[in-house]
Amino acid sequence: MHYKALSYLSTVTLDSNFGSEYNGFMHTIQEKLLALSDGKNLGQMTLREIGGLVGVTSPQKIKHHLAQLEKRGLIRIDKKEGVIERTGKAGWVKSLLKDAKLLTIPIIGSANAGPAQIFANTNIEGYLRVSSNLLERASVRSTHRLFALKVDGPSMNKAVIQGRLLENGDYAIIDSEFGDPKDNDVVLSIIDGMANIKKYYVDKENNQILLMSESTHDFPAIHIHEDDDFSVNGKVVGVIKKPKKK
User: Fold this and answer.
1) What CATH fold (topology level) applies to the domain 96-240?
2) How do residues 4-41 score in pLDDT, each as one tens digit?
3) Residue 81 DSSP label
């Protein structure tokens, strides 16, 4: 059995010197645009003019990468006011929420909360914009360790994380640098390349690890030997609920 963090998510937030910390998943053009926005209001320039400063001839390519930076919460774009500027601290966006900040947390796909059958992949599919008030303080202080997975399946719908049920369609917030799991921790595990979320338990008497459901349905436990192709890639530390349909 292996314990490992997801190395491709080594950084979610940055200080002002973003540099090499973002090289894992930030495009080179976006790095240049972000650096350029420190000293210039790009909103007063045409896309072609901006492209000329970063060595890109296509205005559409510049438009795309500016949109990606805005989506990540790294810049603010106000077309009416003619403003394109960096937000206060990279990785955070300014908000009107009292005593709170909006976090930008990458979504890397989905994880099964039923039988382990959804393939684990490392593609970033988007970003959650989450108030810091929705996460525990310890997690907020270590946002570079966090990523989100969409829960697929009902087998953990009775598990409670920080006062919230972990139900189908919710986003599970994962601490990617979590160390050795303890009994009853809710973890993200990878079994033969498949991602799943389960409650962790070590059965020392029978020399096995159990990944157990906590559900209104009857799901059998997954029985793992310590020599199996199995890894724990993080602990579930928060839940962002799917809106209820009216």
Assistant:
1) Umud Fragment, subunit A (2.10.109)
2) 333 333 222 222 233 333 334 578 888 889 888 877 78
3) T
